[in-house]
């Protein structure tokens, strides 16, 4: 095994279709017009020395190490900033160049510490490499530069230019003495991340990198994406894990297990110890970029809280006792058989995980259908994005996004509705911001003033701060303007859609009650802003729509998705690069868990369970007769449990007690069951009500695939042995075997082969093909052997695109004198979902608790100051947390996150849900906020029960 090395070409690739031919050191090479001499040299196999250049950022030309000679031109131009011209004859190594480069390196080394043997970057330092490349053997200027690490000079006097290391960031250090002022970190922060958190302060030998206005990294605007650390050619910015462990010696490419962007990383190892995660430049979702979670927040994999042995208890009030895997499997099988014998075949079910691989999810739904004999299977994907599946399926014929992430580079107008990409999908957010800085226009539809509305060098053309719950009214008003002003694309509609359905829809949206003026009182949005946004989207060129949970988690989530599809079809913004309808999926494998048949009414590939032909495919392969009746969704399972007819559940990798709405109802349902089996990394909140705990494995400990928000199937590769002894797919298989099924998979690749054999959109997918291609986007089959980056290119999957009327129906959740405010929920950059992983990493430095955002006007009316404890109450329940007074939210709206179980924000949310899919209405809850003295009585009772539930025999005795 060895490290996966990537070539750094020095400057980005040119996208020109025209080519030029140059001669470099006697070799002819043809490259796209605009290619730098440095990159052309590298493509010819000639490495020009460099320090300030890297192909992740634009050329800068400051280090003067990459000079070349060009015949017929005076001087020695920098190869990074000099484009190739036809017929150029270039020399990269002459006596003159050698002397210049040595002189440049002497200046660098004269002002740099020479502690190479003890430096963390030893063996991975470009300055060290370049000193060797130019043949530097001595420094005429000495080695006592002012920037050295010494706090005092030889006379004992304080060195005013010395700066201590900045250790404030939990993941990397900043050593100013080793900075060579190449500006690579500053440019990466600007061009790749788009945060503009770094600058160069001072001049000459006094110049250094500075976060913000000479702040520490942790206190600055730095978002810890790692782009600066990756760009740094010395040990100035170094991962603390590298300092502690040493340089890695082998690596594997794998896929991040956080959000739905699906970034590719090189997991760099020493033996079975992970040293660092480095974003892979060939990763087609992230193109070599990362965020704080994927880059640094992997410490949970080895956290002391991980449960590594199976555990059983008779009652949830009992302490846990550790057992062998065989005893655990036998116990679960026995209990499930007993429950079905006593209460009937429909009395048990299961929940698949959107954090597990496609293969593992497929096996769980297969176990439920072929082993349990029912279709009582559901997933958190329904809790977040099932309206996407329903709405896009109705309009287009497929329940997934239409574009790849690269498509945004060709967008001219972008609508972001109900999504906060810079926090929830930060790598895509960075790519979007880069396009906006290049001139694309932005429309944001969101109750909050999110970061992307106004950030460095970016300002949304329109921000429509609608009242929570009025998405449908706003989208229909946008359509009203487009139709009544004749801004629709008639040629596209006549060719690709049903014209009569369009006419019916157009008549509907053109009605006066759907005008921006008519809905103003309802939505709170300025009619002129709606009209301007509609005109910009319809006439501004390639228009793309990106949306998130702020669209789907409503009682009209499916209706809003259909309204978005209507808007895209009416303007012809479907079927090519730069346009489309793009759901930003929440968890890493939300798309995959949907694809794999995790819904009670659908088999893999979104085919209804009642379809005889589809069932026959699986019945023949599995050797069982399948139940053709749809099963229960999660809320139905909980209802049935309270009623006494549902008694057992297998939950793989989900924490429904913290993530699902109406926490008290979830707790009541779980408490009424006789065998709750939880498979996870930690004793999560749901495990408080579990009778069996099966320890899970992390993404670092398994093979498989994830499918991201752009339908990209990416490989997950095992880099260490499972600390619990079994990968998650093996746990499910052994459970199936204990229940009498003759499964005999020896590797997840065999599961993917079965998926391909049964699911048309995956027909061309196998591990060998993924190794060859890197990744593919489904559908991947005979019609699309290389996958489908863009959907609906020559026509919609369903045939003709379907326009659907989208009548606004107000939610049953109403504000009033008792509950006058509207609560909406979301995420922050540093934490992830229920926080089980990120709370066990250094990310708590940025978000140690959930806070309630409240507008200054609402806070003043209630006597609330920033940081005060407040009581947040709804018709469903109440909790307490600390206030954050901010103008990000509008008056009448409050906002919080749900990352910390101490808050249990979902005790506030109601059981209202989407009319078509049962997706919970997390985003609209009527609440009241009042001063509080601290945690509520319910929180104290909850925490006491949780503490009682997590006792483990043995550990309990050791503690005593």
TrEMBL record:
Residues 96-135 form the 4Fe-4S His(Cys)3-ligated-type domain. It holds the Pfam family Fer2_4. Keywords: 2Fe-2S, 4Fe-4S, Iron, Iron-sulfur, Metal-binding, Oxidoreductase, Repeat. InterPro entries: 2Fe-2S_ferredoxin-like_sf, 2Fe-2S_ferredoxin-type, 4Fe4S_Fe-S-bd, 4Fe4S_Fe_S_CS, Asp_de-COase-like_dom_sf, Formate_Dh-H_N, Formate_DH_asu, MoPterin_dinucl-bd_dom. Residues 249-305 form the 4Fe-4S Mo/W bis-MGD-type domain. In the C-terminal section; belongs to the prokaryotic molybdopterin-containing oxidoreductase family. This is Formate dehydrogenase subunit alpha. It comes from Rhizobium alvei.
């Amino acid at each position: 095994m060895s490290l996966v090395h990537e070539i750094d070409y020095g400057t980005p690739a040119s996208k020109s279709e025209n080519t030029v031919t140059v001669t470099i050191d006697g070799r002819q090479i043809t490259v796209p017009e605009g290619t730098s001499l440095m990159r052309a040299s590298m493509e010819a196999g000639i490495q020009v020395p460099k320090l300030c250049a890297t192909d992740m950022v634009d050329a800068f030309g400051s280090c003067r190490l990459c000079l070349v000679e060009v015949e017929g031109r005076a001087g020695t131009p920098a190869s990074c900033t000099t484009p190739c011209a036809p017929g150029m004859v270039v020399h990269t190594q002459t006596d003159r160049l050698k002397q210049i480069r040595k002189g440049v390196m002497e200046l660098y080394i004269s002002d740099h510490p020479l502690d190479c043997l003890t430096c963390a970057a030893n063996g991975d330092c470009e300055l060290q490499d370049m000193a060797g490349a130019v043949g530097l053997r001595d420094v005429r200027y000495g080695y006592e530069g002012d920037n050295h690490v010494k706090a005092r000079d030889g006379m004992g006097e304080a060195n005013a230019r010395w700066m201590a290391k900045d250790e404030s960031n939990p993941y990397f250090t900043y050593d100013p003495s080793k900075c060579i002022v190449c500006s690579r970190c500053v440019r990466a922060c600007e061009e790749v991340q788009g945060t503009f958190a770094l600058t160069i302060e001072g001049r000459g030998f006094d110049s250094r990198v500075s976060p913000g206005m000479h702040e520490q990294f942790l206190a600055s605007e730095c978002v810890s994406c790692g782009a600066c650390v990756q760009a740094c050619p010395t040990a100035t910015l170094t991962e603390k894990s590298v300092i502690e462990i040493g340089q890695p010696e082998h690596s594997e490419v794998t896929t991040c297990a956080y959000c739905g962007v699906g970034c590719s990383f090189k997991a760099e190892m020493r033996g079975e110890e992970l040293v660092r995660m480095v974003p892979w430049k060939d990763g087609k979702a992230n193109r070599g970029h990362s965020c704080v979670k994927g880059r640094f927040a992997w410490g949970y994999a080895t956290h002391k809280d991980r449960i590594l042995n199976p555990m059983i208890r008779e009652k949830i009030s009992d302490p846990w006792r550790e057992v062998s895997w065989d005893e655990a499997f036998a116990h679960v099988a026995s209990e499930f058989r007993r429950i079905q014998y006593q209460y009937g075949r429909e009395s048990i079910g299961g929940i698949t995980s959107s954090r597990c691989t496609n293969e593992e999810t497929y096996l769980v739904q297969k176990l439920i259908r072929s082993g349990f004999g029912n279709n009582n299977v559901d997933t958190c994907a329904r809790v977040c994005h099932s309206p996407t599946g329903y709405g896009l399926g109705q309009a287009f014929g497929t329940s997934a996004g239409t574009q790849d992430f690269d498509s945004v580079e060709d967008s001219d107008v972008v609508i972001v509705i109900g999504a906060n990409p810079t926090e929830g999908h930060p790598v895509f957010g960075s790519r979007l911001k880069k396009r906006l800085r290049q001139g694309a226009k932005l429309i944001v539809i969101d109750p909050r003033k999110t970061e992307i509305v106004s950030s460095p060098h970016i300002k949304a053309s329109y921000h429509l701060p609608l009242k929570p719950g009025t998405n449908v009214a706003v989208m229909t008003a946008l359509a009203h303007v487009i139709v009544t002003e004749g801004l629709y694309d008639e040629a596209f509609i006549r060719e690709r859609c049903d014209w009569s359905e369009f006419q019916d829809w157009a008549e509907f949206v053109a009605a006066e009650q759907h005008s921006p003026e008519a809905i103003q009182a309802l939505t709170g949005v300025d009619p002129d802003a709606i009209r301007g946004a509609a005109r910009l989207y319809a006439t501004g060129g390639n228009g793309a729509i990106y949306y998130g949970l702020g669209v789907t988690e409503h009682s009209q989530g499916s209706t809003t998705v259909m309204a978005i599809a209507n808007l895209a079809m009416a303007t012809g913004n479907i079927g090519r690069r730069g346009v489309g309808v793009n759901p930003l999926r929440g968890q890493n494998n939300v798309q995959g868990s949907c694809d794999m048949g995790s819904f009670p009414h659908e088999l893999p590939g979104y085919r209804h369970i009642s379809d005889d032909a589809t069932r026959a495919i699986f019945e023949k392969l599995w050797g069982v007769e399948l139940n053709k009746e749809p099963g229960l969704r999660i809320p139905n399972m909980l209802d049935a449990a309270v009623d006494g007819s549902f008694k057992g559940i297998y939950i793989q990798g989900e924490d429904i007690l913290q993530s699902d709405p109406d926490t008290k109802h979830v707790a009541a349902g779980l408490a009424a069951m006789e065998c709750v089996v939880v498979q996870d990394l930690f004793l999560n909140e749901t495990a408080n009500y579990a009778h069996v705990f099966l320890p899970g494995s992390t993404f670092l400990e398994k093979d498989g695939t994830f499918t991201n928000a752009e339908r990209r199937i990416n490989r997950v590769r095992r880099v260490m042995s499972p600390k619990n002894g079994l990968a998650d797919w093996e746990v499910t298989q052994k459970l199936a075997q204990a229940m009498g099924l003759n499964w005999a998979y020896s590797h997840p690749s065999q599961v993917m082969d079965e998926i391909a054999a049964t699911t048309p959109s995956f027909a061309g997918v196998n591990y060998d093909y993924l190794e060859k291609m890197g990744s593919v986007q489904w559908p991947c089959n005979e019609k699309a052997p290389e996958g489908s980056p863009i959907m609906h290119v020559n026509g919609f999957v369903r045939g003709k695109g379907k326009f659907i009327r989208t009548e606004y129906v107000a939610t049953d959740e109403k504000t009033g004198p008792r509950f006058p405010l509207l609560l909406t929920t979301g995420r922050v950059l540093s934490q992830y979902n229920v926080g089980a992983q990120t709370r066990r990493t250094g990310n708590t430095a940025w978000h140690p608790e959930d806070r309630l955002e409240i507008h200054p006007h609402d806070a003043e009316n209630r006597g609330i100051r920033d940081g005060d404890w407040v009581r947040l109450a709804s018709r469903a329940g109440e909790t307490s947390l600390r206030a954050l007074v901010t103008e990000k939210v509008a008056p009448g709206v409050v906002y919080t996150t749900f990352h910390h179980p101490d808050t249990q924000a979902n005790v506030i949310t109601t059981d209202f849900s989407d009319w078509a899919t049962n997706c919970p209405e997390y985003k609209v809850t009527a609440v009241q906020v009042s001063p509080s003295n601290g945690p509520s009585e319910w929180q104290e009772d909850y925490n006491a029960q949780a503490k009682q539930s997590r006792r483990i025999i043995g550990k309990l005795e050791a503690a005593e």
